[in-house]
Specification:
- With 309 residues, the protein is an alpha/beta fold.
- The chain has 3 domains: 119 residues, Periplasmic binding protein-like II (D-Maltodextrin-Binding Protein, domain 2), CATH 3.40.190; 81 residues, Periplasmic binding protein-like II (D-Maltodextrin-Binding Protein, domain 2, 3-Layer(aba) Sandwich); 69 residues, 2-Layer Sandwich (Double Stranded RNA Binding Domain).
- Helix content is 32%, strand content 23%.
- It has 10 helices and 13 strands.
- It has a 5-stranded mixed sheet with strand order 2-1-3-10-4, sandwiched between helices. Strands 7-6-8-5-9 form a 5-stranded mixed sheet, with helices on both faces. The protein has a 3-stranded antiparallel sheet with strand order 11-12-13.
- Helix 9 runs parallel beside helix 10.
- The protein is globular, with a radius of gyration of 19 Å.
Length: 309
């Protein structure tokens, strides 16, 4: 007899999204024995608008909320109990009735350089074509290498790697965290330093949402929540929120807790052509994470005049 699931988890259907969802299910099962039973957890694949639009940049279609809208609707309709997201895809404002009470320990947030023709970004010959779906990567890349040509490059990790192998582009950039979760980190020709390519806000972090009134889900998620990741991502998302950031805006931000227990943050905004980059840095107490990010965002917003939008 088929068992009725105790918990339903919604996710996008890409191999990376499914790998991240399996990680969440495993973390919950390790702390809650009833969720380790066969059939106790149901994974529900939900196709989002962002997954369906592959013929143009997301910036032209409405931004990062396109990856969460249908999943949020399924949660509010009670078709799923939890949803697993790459935090860099989550809008800074959540729908009423949905909360974000949990993040797993963050994976390496840096970007990876993938290329069969050069060992590093600096080794790419002038005029080389770099494919990316990210305005951030494109703008920050052009700021360092205006001699390169950046083209739009959509698709999941596997399809982008296939296009790279077919010579559609000379190189591409992907999140190292995603490659690691897929067991494909060896495909990276190089790992870009934070100075070379500041990561997207919340890159490498997995977030889990649930309904605000779901006491059972809130209790389970509290047991697997990683406080240091929440602190860092809270700082970064506050920076993004002040800048009204979306996929239309080239913004990067990274907060890290040092050995001294202090939180260090750097945030950048660029013009889409890379002609100007604005940066702010903050160091302070973990308890001030949100205020630090917001303050840095206000500095960059005043300096840039919103030029990246």
């Amino acid at each position: 007899m088929t068992r009725t699931p105790i918990l339903s988890i919604g996710t996008r259907g890409s191999p990376l999204a499914l790998a991240q969802t399996e990680a969440v299910a495993a973390a919950l099962a390790a702390l809650q024995p009833e969720l380790a039973e066969p059939g106790a957890v149901e994974i529900v694949v939900i196709k989002t608008t962002g997954d369906a639009i592959l013929d143009r940049p997301l910036a032209e279609a409405g931004g990062k909320g396109l990856f969460t809208k249908e999943i949020d609707e399924a949660m509010l309709d009670r078709r799923i109990d939890l949803a697993v997201h790459s935090m860099k895809d989550v809008p800074t404002w959540l729908p009423e009735g949905i909360v974000l009470p949990c993040m797993l320990p963050r994976e390496d947030p840096r970007d990876a350089f993938l290329c069969d023709k050069a060992a590093s970004l600096s080794d790419l010959p002038p005029g080389s074509v770099v494919g990316t779906a990210s305005l951030r990567r494109g703008a920050f890349l052009l700021a360092r290498r205006p001699d390169l040509r950046v083209v739009s490059f959509r698709g999941n990790v596997q399809s982008r790697l296939a296009k790279l192998a077919d010579g559609v582009v000379d190189a591409t950039l992907l999140a190292l965290a995603g490659l690691k979760r897929l067991g494909m980190a060896e495909r990276a020709a190089a790992i870009l330093s934070v100075e070379e390519m500041l990561p997207a806000v919340a890159q490498g972090a997995i977030g889990i949402t649930c309904r605000a009134d779901d006491a059972r889900a809130l209790d389970w998620l509290a047991r697997i929540n990683h406080a240091d990741t929440v602190t860092a991502v809270t700082c970064e998302r506050a920076f993004l929120r002040v800048l009204d950031g979306s996929c239309r805006t080239p913004i990067g931000g990274l907060a890290r807790i040092g050995a001294d227990g202090q939180l260090a943050f750097v945030g950048r905004l660029a013009r889409t052509d890379g002609s100007r980059v604005f940066e702010a840095r903050r160091t302070g107490a973990v308890a001030d994470a949100e205020a630090m990010g917001a303050d840095a965002g206000a500095e960059v917003k005043a300096a840039s005049g919103g030029c990246g939008v």
